[in-house]
Amino acid sequence: MKILIVGSGGREHAIAWKVAQSPKVDKIYCAPGNAGISEYAECVDIGAMEFDKLVAFAKEKQIDLTVVGMDDPLVGGIVDVFEAEGLRVFGPRKNAAILEGSKAFSKDLMKKYDIPTAVYENFDDPQKALEYLETADMPIVLKADGLALGKGVLICNTLEEAREGVQSIMMDKKFGTAGNKMVIEEFMTGREVSVLSFVDGKNIRIMTSSQDHKRAMDGDQGLNTGGMGTFSPSPFYTDEVDEFCKKYIYQKTVDAMAAEGREFKGVIFFGLMLTPKGPKVLEYNARFGDPETQVVLPRMKNDIVDVFEACVDGTLDQINLEFEDNAAVCVVLASDGYPVKYEKGFPIHGLEHFKGCKDKFVFHAGSKLKDGQIVTNGGRVLGVTALGSTLKEARANAYKAVELVDFDNKYYRHDIGKAIDEV
């Protein structure tokens, strides 16, 4: 098979790494890819939103399956464009990707189908949002309706902060058109857990649990980022939580989308909050998480191409999804100053230490080849992932692995997975 992967981040590198392990696959392309992905795939200089060029490339190279990693092309309708040309593609169509593309839509869906989530209101008028805040309890959560690179959520502790948040999202358009509408919801307390799943329109198969660390600095301080590190599995995702979610959240979401005429095929990412009143949905994503993928796929036993094809063909009920009885921790190495302002173009050293390793991996998020040297090319540069028999062992291994790779401006959190010490 020939596979095309669309995207350029750490998530796509992890997907390419996993696809490369399939005996079914002869050739992998990635558009646009990055320096790390080029180890497994031929990188193609086509942007993720250049649908016509991607279709032409897929036809020219006789691609058997295209895998879309990123949210923007999915929400923009890349799957519809490929399907219209008779091409096989893994991911939700535009009318299903709205599950992530509009937080207002997903909240209304949960309310309509009685899927547990926070109490909320939707607003498209900033003045009405400000009036609502006058009667609301603090802290409170403000969410830009559309895609905002994982940064469009503000947790406001005071009324003044909340007013500034409305100004920032809806009036100053900090997140562009993503802020044309806004969700205001109650602040929930508890543990956050990320659960990825494969979906074929009817059936759902749950992957192993994981947990992201969104804040830029140690102790969950600083600005929200795309994710500074992850661990898997989450010790807080117990059998009881799993049973509850299977009964009240997972299949109900798949069925709700089907009932709305929005059949979902691809990956649904369930962002959960384990509240004192039980698990509730924080958010949905319509694709693999980043950096969750970097700890989930290294633990997955299945040939991922088999799973992709089952989702496309509607035969996921025939797949028994299996994961190793181990643990993984990923520490993101970022450019100092991320997510606001940072320099790039610094040479990356030490990558040779990861060649051929079975228990530690480096997934590139923001890198490129320049004059034969791999250099930094983004805010999040690398995701260093290590395995272990326990979470504590995986965490120790990950931080040892972090010391093996270096670049100017290297910055990372020192407390990824620290929550496991409390178990």
From TrEMBL:
EC number per UniProt: 6.3.4.13
Keyword Transport listed: no
Catalytically driven reaction(s): 5-phospho-beta-D-ribosylamine + glycine + ATP = N(1)-(5-phospho-beta-D-ribosyl)glycinamide + ADP + phosphate + H(+)
Enzyme class: ligase
Matching HAMAP family: GARS
GO molecular function: phosphoribosylamine-glycine ligase activity
Keyword Ligase: yes
Pathway stated in the Swiss-Prot or TrEMBL entry: Purine metabolism; IMP biosynthesis via de novo pathway; N(1)-(5-phospho-D-ribosyl)glycinamide from 5-phospho-alpha-D-ribose 1-diphosphate: step 2/2
Source organism per UniProt: Hominiventricola aquisgranensis
Sorted UniProt keywords: ATP-binding, Ligase, Nucleotide-binding, Purine biosynthesis
Residues annotated as domain ATP-grasp: 107-313
Protein name, as recorded: Phosphoribosylamine--glycine ligase
PANTHER family: PHOSPHORIBOSYLAMINE--GLYCINE LIGASE, PHOSPHORIBOSYLAMINE--GLYCINE LIGASE, CHLOROPLASTIC
